[in-house]
Known about the structure:
Layout: H1 9-13, H2 16-37, H3 39-47, H4 58-64, H5 70-79, E1 94-99, E2 109-113, H6 114-131, E3 138-141, H7 149-161, E4 164-166, H8 173-183, E5 187-190, H9 192-204, E6 216-219, H10 228-238, E7 241-244, E8 257-258, E9 267-268, E10 273-279, E11 282-286, E12 293-299, E13 310-316, E14 338-339, E15 344-346, E16 349-351, H11 353-361, E17 366-377, E18 380-389, H12 398-417, E19 422-426, E20 441-443
Helix pairs in contact: 2-3, 6-7, 8-9, 9-10, 10-11, 11-12
Amino acid sequence: MADGVYWDREKETRSREAREAEVLANLQSQLRFVYDALPFYRSHYDAHGFHPDQVKSLDDFSKRVPIVTKPMLRDDQAAAPPFGRYLGCEAADIIRVHGSSGTSGKPTLYAFSRGDWDYIADVMAQGLYTCGVRPGDIVQLATVFSLFMGGWGSLLGVERLGATAFPLGAGETERQLDLMYRIGATVLITTPTYALHMLETARALGYDAAKSPLRLGIFIGEPGSSIPGTRQALEQGWGIKVRDMATTSEMTPWSTNAECEAAAGPHVMQDEVWTEIVAKDDSSRLLPDGESGAIVYTHLKRRSQPMIRFYAGDESHMVYEPCSCGRTYPRLPAGVYGRLDDMLLIRGANVYPSQVQRSLLEVPGTGVEFKIVLEKKGALDHATVLVERDPAATPADIDHFAADLRERVRHKLKNDTAVNFEVDILPPNTLERALSKAKRVDDRRPKYRPGGH
């Protein structure tokens, strides 16, 4: 099927009209299936006065079908353990069980049928092929292998594509580097945060990272690789091409947002997972091309735990303008900005941690590690950015260098975010390093409790 450029040329280059005709038919089929077979969806739709017969067009789908959220899935699994009332297959047909990280309580469990597991491998392979992985590559998987689907989905796709998988897992960074060079890994799959940590460690150990055997990095699990400063640090530091990929674990196969060689933002594989950008305050209002909003995803073909209009809580914008690679999928030109619930409200201004990261990386002299600390002083919010200086910077007068850097960072952040941040410049290797997703915010402000004091 793959021809050196496309995983499936006909599918990836067909007209929007042909693709969307197929999408509508698949959406109608999925709606009938979940309404007839899955009590979770039937009760949800009945409560909203919706019936699958009401969907005659893609516009109907956006306007009429109610969304599903993560709390709804957690509540349904608590009421009907272990998999909720939306399993979609016989228990005996489940081949794998995974789950969310469970950082806010019990993990939400993901069950995959045998047929879906095979289907997921195909779509994961298409995503990786879009990013540039080819048979003959040695793919180092520096990802967590646990409940989290990131590593497992990557492994499935690499194997289906025909490349060599090297599933090391996350952590043991010195060993990661030793083995990378020893076996000649050509592709790295991990989070942007861990790739930057690996780079920092490589330099400290005396490696010439820009001459590593790697040629390509595919970054998953968190925003970052679409941020220009982060991309530049990774590309120049490792001497690689950077590709952004991923949706969210609930939407496995999560590779349906995958960036091509044009490096113009991830293509959205609309014929596998239908993706909408909707108003943040009205999930039934589809936004025009190029306008930022909330992302809503729908499985078109998966039958075990299918997600229909899943409100992921992420923000982006989508465009249909042509891509030089020839694929006719729409794109997310800036990737996923971040989670809507990660947005910080500081003295009336809305700020994303990824926005702060973007600004910091544009100031010469800063390192890649930072943290935002929020406190309440009197009646006002007080915001501080802790940022390490670049370990490559070795000025004769450290104090003068830090003072100058502090002012340049403050000015940049004020200009970009409209927030007056205090800035502390820290020595390299001061902040804790993450093996997967970074925790960039320490919000110490008192939490408001209705009826409390």
